[in-house]
UniProtKB/TrEMBL annotation:
One of the Pfam families matching this protein, by short name: Aminotran_5
Name assigned to this protein: Aminotransferase class V-fold PLP-dependent enzyme
Lineage of the species this protein comes from: Bacteria, Bacillati, Bacillota, Bacilli, Bacillales
Keywords, sorted A to Z: Aminotransferase, Transferase
GO MF entries: transaminase activity
Chain coiled-coil ranges: none
Residues covered by the Aminotransferase class V domain: 32-364
């Protein structure tokens, strides 16, 4: 298979095979141009600020198209961990309430709830079966004291894709909110923000952006009256009202979660990369990722590796995870060969994106043949 996105669009792809997208993606040349545009615009004073606002609006519009939502339902914070902690602080928990998480979650999706345990909040863990968690598994832990379920769309650990739509349909019959982490899926496969209450995503992975932004999608259907407990000048309708009248009023849209200026260099870069993804087509990207994933999984299995990612295309996305108690060593060995992937947590992970091709897969398989003792 040929790549869907030309490698020439990226910086530094001439010599390496990049299977590192679950951690971060290679930098786009267009992102560099976008950041330079930000720096140039900043020299224009007030006009530069006006352009910042226009680029921010454009970026949110792009994300809304990717998510099937509206720009007003999207806000920018510093990172995904901040967003999850912000939501944890805003939920009106009472002693005896509980939160449901699963054992395949990234630490940022677990730690904010553990902090609440000293307030009498129970954290319920859903165990996985063969590296998979299903909506049934999660719902078995939900009761009338469950205030929130948090889950990743695609697991960073196993690469398994959860049917969050089916989960949300059942949660909508309760008072339990759903927080969906799309960090390992948005930009690789279709995601619908209307099928969750909150959606969180990082900027520097599958969206082909850079570090500096956490994306929050807020579904207004069940969250119109949900207000954060942190506040800043961007959160309120009149930034001077607290000073002049000792009062304030939150924005009614997702902007109420934004406390101050976001990282505009990141937004300029993300505006470029999300437009590129939209022009390419997420369904085309998904099809490419899954087909190339089939190719990689077949060759890994032929070599005798144990794949912990589901083989069924509908149950995975871009991450292909291989069981290994020496994942770090495998990653370090391959890095010396110019092949980048992530190793640790009892496995190594090859992440396939739109710029990967069959030549990359063959290069990885060839290098793994020489690393069998390491693996």
């Amino acid at each position: 298979m040929e790549s869907l996105l030309n490698k020439q669009l990226f910086i530094g792809m001439e010599q390496c095979a990049w299977f590192y997208s679950g951690a971060e993606t290679p930098p786009l040349k267009g992102s560099m141009d976008a950041i330079n545009d930000y720096m140039t615009r900043r020299s224009e004073g007030p006009a530069g600020r006006e352009n910042n606002a226009a680029i921010e609006a454009s970026c949110k519009a792009n994300l809304a198209l990717l998510l099937g939502g509206k720009p007003d339902h999207i806000s920018f914070l510093s990172n995904s961990s901040e967003i999850i902690s912000t939501i944890a602080g805003a939920v009106a928990f009472r002693p005896g309430d509980n939160v449901v998480v699963n054992r395949l979650e990234f630490p940022s999706g677990v730690l904010p709830w553990l902090v609440l345990q000293d307030r009498g909040i129970e954290v319920r863990f859903v165990e996985h079966a063969n590296w998979r968690v299903t909506p049934d598994d999660i719902m078995a832990e939900v009761d009338d004291r469950t205030r929130l379920v948090i889950t990743s769309h695609v697991s960073y650990l196993s690469g398994a894709r959860l049917d969050y739509r089916a989960l949300y349909q059942r949660l909508k019959e309760t008072d339990t909110l759903l927080l969906l982490d799309a960090t390992q899926s948005l930009g690789a496969v279709p995601v619908d923000m209307n099928e969750t209450d909150f959606l969180v995503c990082s900027s520097y992975k599958w969206l082909l952006g850079i570090h500096g932004i956490g994306i929050l999608g807020v579904n207004p259907v069940r969250l119109e009256a949900f207000m954060p407990r942190s506040v800043g000048w961007r959160s309120v309708t009149d930034m001077f009202a607290p000073i002049r009248r000792s009062s304030y009023e939150f924005h009614r849209d997702a902007k109420r979660f934004e406390t101050g200026y976001p990282s505009y260099p990141t937004i300029y870069a993300l505006n470029y990369s999300t437009k590129l993804l939209l022009d390419t087509g997420i369904e085309r990207i998904e099809n490419h990722i899954l087909r190339l994933g089939d190719e990689l999984i077949g060759k890994l299995e032929a070599m005798g590796f144990t794949i912990i990612t589901p083989q069924e295309p509908q149950l995975r996305a871009g991450n292909v995870c291989v069981a290994s108690d020496r994942g770090e060593a495998v990653s370090e060995y391959l890095q010396k060969q110019g092949i980048y992937l992530w190793g640790g947590d009892g496995r190594f992970r090859a992440s396939i994106h739109s710029f990967n091709d069959s030549a990359d897969v063959d290069r990885l398989i060839g290098a793994l043949s020489g690393a069998r003792e390491t693996a």
